[in-house]
Specification:
This is Glycoside hydrolase- family 43. By secondary structure, this protein is an all-beta fold. The protein has two domains: about 40-145 and about 230-325, Glycosyl hydrolase domain, family 43 (Tachylectin-2, Chain A); about 340-510, Jelly Rolls. It has one helix spanning about 110-115; strands spanning about 40-50, 55-60, 70-75, 80-90, 105, 120-125, 135, 155-160, 165-170, 175-180, 205-210, 215-225, 225-235, 240-250, 255-260, 270-280, 285-295, 305-310, 325, 340, 345-350, 355-365, 375-380, 390-400, 415-425, 430-435, 440-450, 460-465, 470-475, 485, 495-510. The strands form six sheets. Strands 19, 20, 21, 22, 23, 24, 25, 26, 27, 28, 29, 30 and 31 form a 13-stranded antiparallel beta sheet that branches. The longest helix is centred in the first third of the chain and has 6 residues, at about 110-115. The radius of gyration is 26 Å and the shape is elongated. The chain starts with about 40 loop residues before the first strand and ends with a strand.
C-alpha cells in the first residue's frame, strides 16, 4: 500500500489574508494549465497553505523499494509550480526502508509481521523549520507502530480544529481510526470513548470510525461548522479507485457514508482517489487534489497528480466532482501532451500557447477518449510551404502513430497518422472537416467552407461538436455552424491539434461532454 504524507507545522502562519495575497483568488473550474499539473509519477497527495503558497506533498509512485525520498511542490497561484526535490530521504529516517514522509507511513507493515515483532514500521513523523525542509526524524521510531481496531497504520491525515486540538486520522485494511495528538505534535494523547483490541492505554487513545466501504486514504476537513471525513474506496492498483465522504457534528463522528464524489471517467482517467483538499483562504473555494491513472497507462504505479473544483450544495453536501480537460499553457509547459510527426517538427510553448512549426505533418495529442464532445481552442495559422497548409483540431482519434508516406493529407515520409476526424483552417480562409484512416493517412473530405481571408498569426476561436454521428464546426463567436456533416465511422477517441506544413498556434484548449 502506498503511503500518504500529511504536514502539520508548528510555529508557521497557517495562512495569509486575501489582501496579503495581493488580491489573488484562484477561482478555476479545474487546473487551468492542465492535468497532470506537474510532471512525474506521483500519488497520494496531501496539501497545505503556508505564507501565501499552496503546497502539495505527494508519494513518489514507484515500486516500494524505490520510495526512498519525498518531493514537494509549491505554487502562489495553483498554476505555476516549483519542485522541491528530496525534502526527506532515508538518511534522515533510519528505521524507514520503503517509504517515509512528514507524518508518513513507512515499511507497509502487515498484521502478522507486527504480531511477531519481525518488522518495524507504521506512521512516523519528521520535522523541519520550513515547508520545503529538509526534514529530520522527530522521535527515532514510529509514532503509531501497531494495529489497533484492525487498522493498518498508514494513510494518515492530521487535522487541527478551531480550538487548536490536533487529531490524526488514519487506517488501511478497511479500518479507520482517530486519535488526538498532544500539544508537542509528536505523541498520542488520551481520547475518551476510544476502543481497541490493542494493549495498554490504546482503548483510551484510538477510536474506530470506519464508515461503510472504507478502504484507506483518510482525510478530514471542516466547513461551516461541519466535519467532513473523506476516504478512498476500491483497490488503488485498479481503475475503480474512488473517493467518498461522510458528515458529522463532531471530529470523532459518527461518520455515516453519504456518497461517492470522485471516480473514474472513461473519457479522462481511471483510478482517481487518495486525495487532499485545498481551501483558498477567505473564499468558499475548494479543490480536490488527487492521483489518477492516464487512460493509456496500464502499470499500477503510473499515476499522476491532478486537481478539480469541489462544489458544495446548499444543504452542505458535496456535489460529484467532474474531471475536466483544459490547458491554457499558462505554466509554460505542455504536461500530459504527446507528440507525433516528422523529426523536423518543432513543438514548443510560448506566450501561453502551444506552437507547432512543421515542415511536414505533426500531431499534439491529449490522453483522452471522448465519445460525444464539445472541443474548443484558439487557433492561429501562418502561410505554409505547400498548397494545402492548414492547422486545426483532431478528435475521436485512434491508432496514433507514424507512417512511411501516402497519397495525400498526412503524406510526407515519417509523418503522424491516425484514424479519426480533423477540422482545419488555412490562412487563405479555407475550412475543412475530414476523416483520416488507413496506413497512408488519406483524408476523406466530409465538408468544406470558407471565410474571408484570415489575418495570419491571429487567434480565432474554433469549436467542434460531435454528438452521435452529427459533427459541426464553428469558427469565431457564432451560434451558426460553418460546416455540418453526418458520419458514423468513428465513435470515440483522443483529442488534440494538428499542423500541416505550416506554423500553428493553439491556446485555451478544452474538451467537455455536451450538456
Amino acid at each position: 500500500m502506498l503511503p500518504q504524507m500529511i504536514l502539520a507545522a508548528v510555529g508557521h502562519t497557517p495562512g495569509l489574508s486575501r489582501q496579503q495575497q495581493a488580491g489573488l483568488v484562484p477561482d478555476y473550474l479545474t487546473a487551468p494549465a492542465g492535468n497532470p499539473f506537474v510532471s512525474g509519477w506521483y500519488a497520494d497527495p496531501d496539501t497545505e497553505f503556508y505564507e501565501g503558497q499552496y503546497w502539495v506533498f505527494p508519494t513518489s509512485s514507484y515500486a516500494y523499494a524505490e520510495q526512498t525520498y519525498l518531493d514537494a511542490f509549491s505554487s502562489p497561484d495553483l498554476v505555476n509550480w516549483t519542485k522541491h526535490p528530496n525534502i526527506l530521504t532515508t538518511k534522515d529516517v533510519k528505521w524507514a526502508t520503503e517509504a517515509y514522509y512528514l507524518y508518513f507511513g513507512a515499511n507497509d507493515i502487515q498484521e502478522d509481521e507486527d504480531a511477531e515483532g519481525t518488522k518495524v514500521g507504521g506512521i512516523g513523523v519528521a520535522v523541519a523549520d520550513r515547508p520545503e525542509g529538509p526534514y529530520v526524524d522527530a522521535i527515532g521510531a514510529p509514532l503509531i507502530g501497531h494495529y489497533y481496531n484492525g487498522a493498518q497504520p498508514i494513510d494518515q491525515d492530521v487535522f487541527i480544529d478551531d480550538d487548536g486540538q490536533a487529531y490524526i486520522y488514519y487506517g488501511g485494511h478497511s479500518h479507520a481510526n482517530v486519535a488526538k495528538l498532544n500539544e508537542d505534535m509528536i505523541s498520542i494523547g488520551q481520547l475518551d470513548g476510544g476502543n481497541s483490541s490493542g494493549n495498554g492505554t490504546a482503548a483510551a487513545q484510538y477510536k474506530e470510525i470506519t464508515p461503510e466501504n472504507y478502504t484507506e486514504g483518510s482525510q478530514m476537513m471542516k466547513r461551516n461548522g461541519t466535519y467532513y471525513f473523506m476516504w478512498s474506496e476500491g483497490g488503488w492498483g485498479g481503475p475503480d479507485y474512488s473517493v467518498s465522504y461522510a458528515m458529522a457534528d463532531s471530529p470523532l463522528g459518527p461518520f455515516d457514508r453519504k456518497a461517492k464524489i470522485l471516480q473514474q471517467d472513461d473519457a479522462v482517467a481511471t483510478g482517481s482517489g487518495h486525495h487532499g483538499v485545498i481551501h483558498v483562504p477567505e473564499a468558499d473555494i475548494y479543490y480536490i487534489v488527487y492521483h489518477r491513472r492516464p487512460l493509456s497507462e496500464t502499470g499500477r504505479d503510473h499515476r499522476v497528480l491532478a486537481y478539480d473544483r469541489m462544489y458544495f450544495n446548499e444543504d452542505g453536501t458535496i456535489a460529484p466532482v467532474q474531471m475536466l480537460v483544459h490547458d491554457n499553457f499558462a505554466d509554460g509547459k505542455a504536461i500530459g501532451w504527446k507528440f507525433y510527426g516528422d523529426k523536423v517538427d518543432n513543438w514548443t510553448v510560448a506566450g501561453q500557447q502551444l506552437v507547432g512549426v512543421c515542415k511536414g505533418d505533426g500531431l499534439a495529442m491529449l490522453d483522452t477518449n471522448f465519445t460525444d464532445l464539445v472541443m474548443n481552442a484558439t487557433v492561429a495559422v501562418s502561410d505554409g510551404t505547400r498548397e494545402r497548409s492548414d492547422v486545426g483540431l483532431v478528435f475521436r482519434a485512434t491508432n496514433l502513430g507514424e507512417s512511411n508516406g501516402g497519397a495525400s493529407g498526412f503524406s510526407l515520409t515519417g509523418p503522424a497518422v491516425f484514424n479519426g476526424y480533423y477540422a482545419g483552417i488555412s490562412a487563405a480562409g479555407y475550412v475543412v472537416l475530414g476523416k483520416y484512416g488507413g496506413n497512408n493517412g488519406t483524408m476523406t473530405t466530409l465538408g468544406e467552407g470558407s471565410v474571408s481571408r484570415l489575418q495570419a498569426a491571429s487567434n480565432y476561436a474554433m469549436t467542434v461538436t460531435a454528438i452521435g454521428s452529427e459533427i459541426k464546426v464553428y469558427l469565431g463567436n457564432t451560434d451558426t455552424a460553418l460546416i455540418t456533416a453526418t458520419d458514423p465511422t468513428y465513435t470515440s477517441g483522443a483529442n488534440g491539434v494538428a499542423v500541416h506544413a505550416a506554423k500553428g498556434v493553439f491556446g485555451n484548449v478544452s474538451v467537455d461532454k455536451p450538456t
